Every structure is written in C-alpha cells, then in structure tokens.
Amino acid sequence: MVKKYLAIFFLLLLIISDNLYSKDKIVAVIVSANLEKFNVAYSELKRRLAETKKDLQIQLILSNPNPDPVSWANALKRAEGMEVDVIITFGAPLAYTALREKISTPIIYVDVYEKNIFETFKTKNITGLYNAIPVSTVIKNLCAIKKITKLHVLYCPFEKETEIEAKRIKEMLQQINLDVELHPLKSPENIYEINVKNTDAMFLTTSVILESGITKIAEYAIKKEIPLVGISETVTNGGGFICVAPDPKGQGRQLTNFLINYIETKNLPKSEQVKDVNFVLNMKTAKLINLTIPLHVLSNVTKIIK
Hints:
Elements: H1 2-20, E1 24-31, H2 36-52, E2 57-63, H3 69-81, E3 86-90, H4 92-100, E4 107-112, H5 116-119, E5 126-130, H6 135-145, E6 150-155, H7 160-174, E7 179-184, E8 201-204, H8 208-211, H9 214-223, E9 228-230, H10 233-237, E10 242-246, H11 248-265, E11 272-273, E12 277-282, H12 283-288, H13 295-298, E13 303-305
Parallel strand pairs: 1-2, 1-3, 3-4, 4-5, 5-11, 6-7, 6-8, 8-9, 9-10, 12-13
Antiparallel strand pairs: 10-12
C-alpha cells in the first residue's frame, strides 16, 4: 500500500515539475560561417529577447561549424539529437542541408535568397526570413556609375542555391543585353584563376563559403580595378564596391518577433520577406578603382563606408 502511494506521489511530482518548466524553450542557433552580418543579427536577437521575452525562458545554444557541407550536417544532427524545440539557421546552405538530411526538428532560416528551392522538398517543417532584393537594382546603380557590357558572376558549387542564383542572374541580365559569364569557385583562393580580361564588373552571389574569404576576392577585384558588387553587406564590408542588402540588425529584430510568435503559438509562421534594406557604398574602394559617384546615385545610398 505504501509503495502504491509513493508511486502516485512521484507521478504527481513529475507532472508538477513538467508544468513548472513547460515554458523553458531550448533554441539551437547554427551559424553557417563567421560573418559580421550573422554576428550582428544574432547579437540583436539576444538583446531583443532580453527585452521582450517577459515570462518566456528561452535558452539559446550557439554553434559555429566550419563553413563546409560536412560540418553543417554534423551541427544540425547534434542539435536534433539534443531534442531542442527549434533550430535557427543563419545562411541558406544550412537550411538546404537540413532538408537534405531530413532533420525532424522545426527550422527557422535567416538570410536566404533562393527560398523557392526549399519548396521542392514539400515540407511544412521549415520557414523563416528571406531576401527578395532585385539584382536589377544593384546593376542599375552600377550602370549609372560605369558602363557595363560584361559581368562575371561568382558562385560556389558546394552551395546549390548559389548556382541557381547565378543562373537566374544570367538569364535576367541577358534580357538587357549584358554579356554574363558564370564562374564556379570551390574556395575564395580560386579567384586568382579567373581571366578577367575585358570584364567590367564582378557579382558575388550569396555564398557563405566565398563570403568567408571576401577579403581575397575584393583585393583581387581592386588590383584589376574591377567593381565587385552583390546583395550582401559582406561584400562592401570586405572591400567590395556596392551592395543592396538586408540590414543585419533589422534581420535580428524581425527574427526575434518570428521566434516569439512560434514559441507562443507552437505553429511555424509563414515565411517573411526581409523588411529593412540598405544600399551600401564603399567610398574607399571607389577611390582605389578610380570611380566617381554621380549625385543621383549618391542620394540613394543609406550607408557609406569611408
């Protein structure tokens, strides 16, 4: 009889304990590469959670794997094995890897350009913030500064989404009679193998592997006096010429609301387009490659790197 009462007591204790800690949520945050834009967004997420979480107890577990497919897969599997409530992935290759590896934990992605690639997997277990910035906006501003007839587009073959991005850029720019050449680079060091004779500009796709070595790519472009452009602030932070890109702090703020919405409703929200966008100009690089910025272009710039 005593054993029966003890069993009931411990069962009630477990139920009470579960209710007491039901608000505790564990969130795995995996960053695909050590890039400033990701670090800024993550810092903003932490700051905003401290202000807005109220009764929510959200524990963030940060992981910084090496920027390669094997390390990304291992980081995702570790997070899944920890039985976290949700995984936040910074960078498109992590989200793509999660789908390929059939990770069962809900995924919230950040800083994704080719979000349509995820729809081919037909899963409702993934959502997040995507970037829909028209590449034409970058090219339009570039053409207002310099005459462009030939453009080299750089992508990484280890990141499927960047290959798709590069092909779409080529299709779009060929419609305005631009000569576009695609270059697959397995690493930033391969930039020195490119023949840039008669090239007017280079466009860097949103490859986190290539962005990890942005300094090498930008230095090569400056040496050849070729403007390097893109749709990521990593481009201009690393010495590139111009970019039209999501604001990292803005992504952090938007991500905070997105995460809290999921935790409170227990339903993954629909994916959202990034709201805050910057037009960034690296004035130092402009001087190094001897480009003068027209006033009508300068008036559109929201951030200048001097």
